[in-house]
Recover the amino acids of this structure.
């Protein structure tokens, strides 16, 4: 047992990424089974006071995604600000909290018990608070120094604080079935937490990585761009309380244009390695997703008979977020396990599986949330992404192949 704990707590990312990849596979297996039960053939899935469809977003946004985010940010956050890595006593409770929350969440989903899911969110929230405390200590130390602010760190920290707020709204919804709380939990989780973290990370990572591996590459990552992204994300985050289709159209259109400019400026003019290109290809979903959101609001304002359903946000959830998770987790895992910094076969299959799953989910939205297409999106994910998730899990449970610590 001691040997296992020594391995799983050897680095900040290990247990959190293990939790994330297990959820990446098993939560989609549960969700696909639920969709099959609803749209194809009843298979006896448990049902409770809260419909199954309303359990999907809380567990994805506030149990699965944070495990990936904290696994990454607890590793890089101190380095961004020029401080020493976090110690085991600091990161071990965070990983443990999210792993326990995951176990409780699985039990909640299998039994359709909303109160168990509230317990899972509460446990995740405790881990979240501990993580925020350690990150806040780093930011406070930076503020006392003469280093100047690390804007990527501050941006990510802001998004993490908003994410914890969204988690609280999600728990409140499960306790009260308050519809406004559900909408706020989803909008904050999407436009205040998930997307700002990803946009912050790619703003830092893509130009940095490309500059290291592509000859003649010119890095471009102005801080005003990071600020503008926040300016236009906020109206989308506050949509449930502002209810202004015109403002949301302007914000989504601006984000589509901004991310398209980022994509064009970041795209290498020379051949780049696979690990870089999957980051860029995954990010290409951002202008598409924001553009679909903008067009949906434009159609509403113009009186067009056009309803994309949930296709726009799933272009961002599955297309962008799913692709970037494959890219970022593969890169961190390969590098921190002593393996070559390259896309392996399982990673390539998973990446293209995410693209196919995103396309199927978008078709489902355009066809009135068509059940067969929803199930197809899930099946593609299970078949093509699960082998990658299991491969990553085995790596986190083993020592580094080069014999180095970590």
């Amino acid at each position: 047992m001691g040997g296992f704990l020594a391995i799983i707590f050897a680095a900040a990312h290990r247990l959190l990424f293990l939790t994330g990849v297990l959820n990446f596979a098993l939560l989609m297996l549960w969700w696909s089974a639920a969709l099959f039960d609803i749209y194809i053939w009843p298979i006896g899935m448990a049902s409770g006071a809260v419909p199954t469809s309303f359990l999907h977003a809380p567990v994805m946004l506030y149990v699965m995604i944070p495990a990936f985010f904290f696994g990454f940010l607890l590793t890089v956050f101190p380095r961004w600000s020029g401080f020493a890595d976090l110690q085991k006593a600091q990161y071990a409770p965070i990983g443990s909290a999210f792993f326990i929350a995951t176990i409780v969440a699985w039990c909640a989903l299998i039994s359709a018990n909303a109160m168990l899911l509230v317990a899972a969110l509460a446990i995740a929230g405790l881990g979240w608070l501990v993580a925020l405390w350690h990150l806040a200590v780093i930011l406070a130390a930076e503020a006392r120094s003469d280093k100047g602010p690390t804007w990527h760190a501050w941006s990510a920290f802001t998004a993490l604080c908003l994410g914890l707020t969204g988690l609280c709204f999600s728990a409140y919804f499960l306790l009260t079935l308050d519809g406004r709380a559900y909408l706020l939990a989803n909008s904050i989780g999407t436009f205040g937490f998930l997307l700002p973290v990803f946009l912050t990370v790619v703003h830092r990572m893509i130009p940095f990585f490309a500059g290291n591996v592509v000859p003649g590459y010119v890095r471009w990552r102005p801080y005003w761009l990071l600020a503008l992204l926040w300016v236009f994300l906020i109206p989308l985050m506050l949509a449930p309380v502002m209810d202004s289709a015109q403002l949301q159209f302007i914000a989504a259109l601006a984000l589509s244009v901004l991310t398209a400019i980022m994509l064009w400026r970041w795209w290498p003019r020379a051949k780049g390695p696979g690990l870089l290109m999957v980051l860029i290809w995954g990010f290409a979903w951002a202008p598409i997703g924001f553009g679909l959101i903008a067009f949906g609001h434009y159609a509403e304002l113009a009186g067009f008979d056009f309803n994309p359903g949930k296709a726009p946000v799933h272009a961002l959830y599955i297309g962008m977020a799913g692709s970037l998770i494959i890219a970022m987790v593969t890169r961190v895992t390969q590098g921190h396990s002593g393996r070559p910094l390259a896309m392996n076969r399982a990673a390539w299959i998973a990446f293209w599986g995410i693209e196919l799953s995103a396309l199927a989910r978008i078709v489902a939205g355009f066809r009135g949330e068509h059940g067969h297409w929803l199930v197809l999106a899930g099946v593609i994910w299970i078949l093509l992404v699960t082998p990658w998730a299991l491969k990553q899990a085995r790596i986190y449970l083993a020592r580094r192949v080069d014999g180095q610590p970590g």
In short: The mean pLDDT is 96. The chain is about 80% helix and 0% strand. The CA atoms of residues 285 and 320 lie 5 Å apart.
